[in-house]
Write a structure and sequence with these properties.
Strand 7 and strand 8 form a beta hairpin. The termini are far apart. Helix 1 packs across helix 16. This protein has a four-stranded mixed sheet, covered by helices on one side. By secondary structure, the protein is of the alpha+beta class. It is extended, with a radius of gyration of 32 Å. Helices cover 46% and strands 7% of the residues.
Length: 487
């Protein structure tokens, strides 16, 4: 093969640093965006917060009625240079891994010590289970080595409140001088009287028994519940085999009903309330309200910090000066403009996507879940003239506050099912109908999946039994034989 040189002309999409930053900001949730903004403010001299009075919610950008919102033509993607503007819609068909190989929101900005302290303060601040039990052991009437045995027993209690490896624990304790199995059992009974009820149990049956014994003697169903727990009938209870329970206990259904209700009210994991957990608070990115018969969409001003370029430092920049300080200031100015433009593009894209969603799902806002229309990312992308990947990023970890509640933007997207009239029904609407049918069913004769499919067919929705089962499981609703109540 002969070696030769040739010119080839072609077009290719270049991911500039500014465009990469804009795509990354669009993907971030509200919390991650706040961390990103804080890091940018701390690292850029020319970037500062705009503390001027904020406009009212009705005057906020994008608060116009949905019916009057005009879809703008998406501008063509252009390379971002120096201090130019970014493409607002970011119609880029690029995988996230192509831009950032090991990017994760948590790694976007390492929190400082103060922020880490704030995050730790968000954890549950109450006393842990072990400290709670040790505090009670200090005032318990232990004699001699009983206090030491109790401490060993408390150390063996896991986070759920159960004793772990009881045979091994008993062997280790009886190896201590002067400690017998009877002495360990006596101390265990005292520890099991501690709060919370059911703690330090060796199995589920003992945990439930301890809780039942702590109730008042006149509690309805208490004696029969103890018979169920102590008689080894928990497996039938788990299977909801109420007929088998009535036969095994030789009782009527009227007597069994309060006992079953009492057992279901018990805590199978007494240590769970003492486990540290992080409080999750969601703040809406978009607020939807109804004014004068029209739905209005606006960005949440609390989640949209306004930034600007520091005019004082900007005045120090001289175009002809190429000193090291001047080059650093020019770089900070360019990065600040990139960042502000990226934020504006992010807000505009989220607002336009939210307006399109509200326009498509007006029936849901007016009538509820059963009126949800089928909607996919492609539908919004085609209406706005942007790419599906942009819609996916704009709806990831973003929330919308409506008069019907707080929803993730992805909640409004669902697949469709063909109706008998030739139309389409949303999967979310079908799930809402199934939930309504099950809620109104006869507890003694619950509706099977086949019956639910027949009832949906009468409403014009043709779905298979396995599809009904899939939707029912997605709603965390048990099958009909588990929903059957005691006769």
């Amino acid at each position: 093969m002969k070696t030769s040189l040739a010119l080839r002309q072609g077009m290719a999409l270049t991911m500039t640093p500014a465009l990469q930053q804009a795509i990354r900001l669009l993907q971030l949730s509200t919390l991650d965006l706040q961390l990103e903004i804080q890091q940018a403010l701390e690292s850029n001299l020319l970037l500062e917060r705009d503390d001027s009075p904020e406009p009212a919610l009705d005057e906020a950008p994008g608060s116009e009625p949905v019916a009057e919102a005009e879809a703008e033509d998406a501008p063509m993607l252009e390379e971002v240079v120096a201090a130019e503007t970014l493409s607002e819609e970011l119609p880029v068909d690029a995988a996230w891994d192509e831009v950032y190989d090991d990017y994760s929101p948590a790694a976007a900005a390492a929190p400082d010590d103060d922020l880490q302290d704030f995050l730790q303060a968000n954890l549950r601040g109450s006393t842990g289970l072990r400290e709670h039990l040790l505090a009670q052991a200090e005032v318990a009437p232990f004699v001699g080595p009983q206090a030491q045995i109790a401490e060993h027993l408390i150390d063996a209690v896991n986070e759920d409140g159960y004793l772990e490896d009881w045979p091994g624990l008993l062997a280790r304790l009886t190896a201590m001088p002067g400690v017998t199995p009877a002495a360990v059992e006596a101390v265990l009974e005292l520890v099991q009287d501690f709060d919370p009820p059911g703690v330090a149990a060796r199995d589920l049956a003992e945990c439930l028994r301890l809780q039942l014994e702590s109730l008042r003697p006149g509690t309805p169903g208490r004696l029969l519940a103890l018979r169920i727990v102590e008689g080894g009938h928990l497996l039938m209870l788990a299977r909801r085999d109420e007929a088998g329970l009535r036969k095994a206990l030789a009782v009527e259904a009227s007597a069994l009903r309060p006992a079953l209700a009492l057992i279901r009210s018990l805590q199978p994991h007494p240590g769970r309330p003492f486990q540290a957990h992080e409080s999750d608070y969601l703040s809406p990115d978009v607020i939807v309200s109804r004014r004068n018969g029209r739905w209005r969409v606006a960005l949440n001003p609390e989640n949209q910090p306004r930034l600007r370029i520091n005019s004082r430092y900007q005045g120090f920049i001289k175009r002809a000066d190429t000193s090291k300080d001047q080059l650093a200031l020019k770089q900070h100015l360019q990065e600040a403009r990139y960042f502000i433009n990226s934020l504006e593009a992010r807000n505009d894209t989220i607002l336009r996507v939210a307006q399109c969603i509200v326009e498509e799902q007006r029936a849901f806002l007016d009538y509820g879940e059963e009126a949800m229309r089928p909607l996919v990312l492609r539908d919004v992308a085609e209406q706005l003239g942007i790419h599906e990947s942009t819609v996916s990023r704009a709806t990831a970890n973003k929330y919308m506050l409506t008069p019907r509640g707080l929803y993730e933007l992805k909640y409004f997207f669902s697949s469709h099912v063909q109706t008998t009239q030739g139309g389409m029904a949303s999967a979310t609407a079908i799930q809402a109908m199934i939930k309504r049918l099950i809620h109104t069913e006869d507890p003694g004769r619950p509706l099977s999946d086949s019956t639910l499919a027949e009832l949906l067919l009468k409403d014009g929705i043709q779905v298979a039994r396995r599809t009904v089962a899939k939707y029912r499981e997605a709603l965390n609703i048990p099958p009909s034989h588990e929903r059957r109540a005691v006769a």
